[in-house]
Design a protein that fits this description.
This protein has 2 domains: 8-184 and 355-375, NAD(P)-binding Rossmann-like Domain (Rossmann fold); 189-351 and 383-404, Dihydrodipicolinate Reductase, domain 2, CATH 3.30.360. 33% of the residues lie in helices and 19% in strands. It has 14 helices and 15 strands. The chain has helices at residues 8-20, 51-63, 77-89, 95-98, 114-119, 134-143, 158-173, 188-198, 228-234, 246-249, 252-262, 354-368, 375-394, 400-404, and strands spanning 42-47, 67-74, 108-110, 124-127, 147-150, 178-180, 205-214, 268-274, 289-295, 301-308, 315-322, 325-328, 334-337, 342-345, 398-399. Strands 14-13-12-11-7-10-9-8-15 form a 9-stranded mixed beta sheet. A 6-stranded parallel beta sheet has the order 3-2-1-4-5-6, with helices on both faces. The relative contact order is 0.16.
Length: 442
């Protein structure tokens, strides 16, 4: 876990990525997506059959009457079967859409390479595996000219981020639609509030506070017949090569909102974090709390906090502070002056479900021959969260250029059931934990 040196060529390449948001590829300009926008039936593949992938498949089938789910892929067969059963029995999917679930036995793919087979059967692909796999699965989609809905985050380490950044230019030149599951970009409350912020209603943005404080998520116990790889894959949330820690997997939503407001990404981060309450071996290697101070080029400061500890104050929201007032996304969404006068209050009772809207807009764009591509901001907000993890794990100030050029690779490009995972427990079953001030993790 020693810090690797960064040569000038890599440093400059990373700087160019940040400035331009992409790397020039060798693809011919004007190359277009494979699918014909006027094609009557759009074939859909689901890669990653957990709860989020299952929900996304239902939303995709709802978005367009002529979308057919034709292929599914997962590391585990029981997850695939459960997902298919849940789609067919979903109360949120109309009966006339359930007839569009046409997954043959021969199109149920299982294993680490299953994604390649499913992707090649489809026009549109849902990517909802653990996020460590995302850059490699996304690369397969782009190379095969598939439209994509992919869940956030987009990677768990800097090499994965660099791969995803290379795909930004490729996907744009191929005119692919790629919607990233940062659904606040499709939520009426957020769009209205941020439109008002950008119009100057709170003045110049000078700081912000963003939160994902809650009690945590599921833990799946180890079973006697599991290999270490099977256990980590089943319990992926607690291993950084698969998840990236909850600052990356969940808190990316809130960090992304402030990046959206600023229209920029921070240049540095410093912070603190650790494991105070969730110290059991079942929690793998992730922290239970993080606090990060992000600094932007113009001096704006973002205070970011996330926590997985039960019995504490909880909030998942953002506060944007300007020279004239404050915008709050918590609750209904408000804009107030500094002395408390309400200037705007969003009433969202009839707002559409943003999880559905992102699929509605994706499939409408495909049908109309348009292009929606969220990949760049999805990648860079993911990188922001990863930089935050570097700061909390190491205890040092981290510069974006250093972070994006890190050579520390958590996620192997290829994985098999015969492999050992990248991190292993000690003789007592505990995993190595980063120690601020001692661990150089980037």
């Amino acid at each position: 876990m020693k810090k690797k040196s960064i040569d000038r060529r890599d440093f400059m390449k990373g700087s160019a990525m940040i400035a331009g948001g992409m790397v020039v590829s060798g693809l011919p300009v004007g190359a277009s997506a494979y699918v014909n926008p006027q094609k009557k039936k759009l074939k859909l593949a689901l890669v990653g059959c957990g709860g989020r992938g299952t929900g996304a498949a239902v939303q995709a089938l709802t978005a367009d009457p002529d979308v057919e789910l034709v292929a599914m892929a997962d590391a585990f067969r029981d997850r695939l079967d459960k997902s298919l059963n849940n789609i067919l029995s979903s109360q949120h999917l109309a009966d006339d859409r359930k007839k569009n679930v046409k997954v043959k036995e021969s199109s149920k793919y299982v294993g680490f390479d299953a994604y390649k087979k499913a992707i090649r059967e489809a026009d549109v692909v849902i990517l909802a595996t653990p996020p460590g796999f995302r850059p490699y699965h996304l690369e397969e989609c782009v190379n095969n000219e598939k439209h994509v809905f992919c869940e956030k985050p987009l990677a768990t380490d800097s090499p994965g981020i660099r791969k995803a950044l290379e795909l930004v230019k490729k996907s744009e030149e191929k005119k692919l639609n790629i919607v990233v599951g940062l659904q606040r970009h499709y939520q009426t409350k957020y769009k209205e509030l941020i439109s008002r912020i950008k119009a100057g209603e709170i003045g110049d943005v000078i700081s912000g506070q963003v939160y994902w404080d809650g009690g945590g998520v599921w833990v799946r116990p180890r079973k006697p017949d599991y290999t270490e790889m099977q256990y980590q894959m089943r319990n992926w949330y607690y291993f950084n090569w698969l998840c990236g820690d909850h600052i990356v997997e969940q808190h990316v939503h809130n960090i992304d909102v402030f990046n959206w407001v600023k229209g920029a990404y921070p240049v540095s981060a410093q912070g603190m974090g650790g494991r105070q309450v969730r110290v059991g071996k079942e929690y793998g290697e992730i922290f239970d709390h993080h606090y990060v101070e992000f600094k932007y080029a113009d001096g704006t400061i973002l205070n970011s906090q996330c926590r997985h500890i039960k019995g504490c104050w909880n909030r998942v929201a953002e506060t944007i502070v300007g020279t004239k007032g404050v915008a709050e996304t918590y609750g209904s969404g408000t804009i107030t002056t500094h002395d408390g006068k309400t200037l705007y209050k969003h009433r969202d009772k009839n707002d559409p479900n943003p999880y559905q809207v992102e699929h509605d807009e994706l499939f409408a764009s495909i049908r109309n021959g348009g292009v929606i591509n969220n990949l760049h901001y999805g990648v860079m907000s993911t990188m922001t969260a990863i930089m935050g993890r570097y700061a909390t794990y190491s205890g040092v100030e981290v510069k974006m250029d250093d972070a994006i050029n890190s050579k520390v690779q958590l996620m192997p490009p290829e994985v098999s059931w015969e492999d050992n995972p990248p991190v292993l427990p000690d003789e007592n079953g505990f995993y190595p934990i980063a120690v601020p001030g001692k661990s150089m993790v980037f």
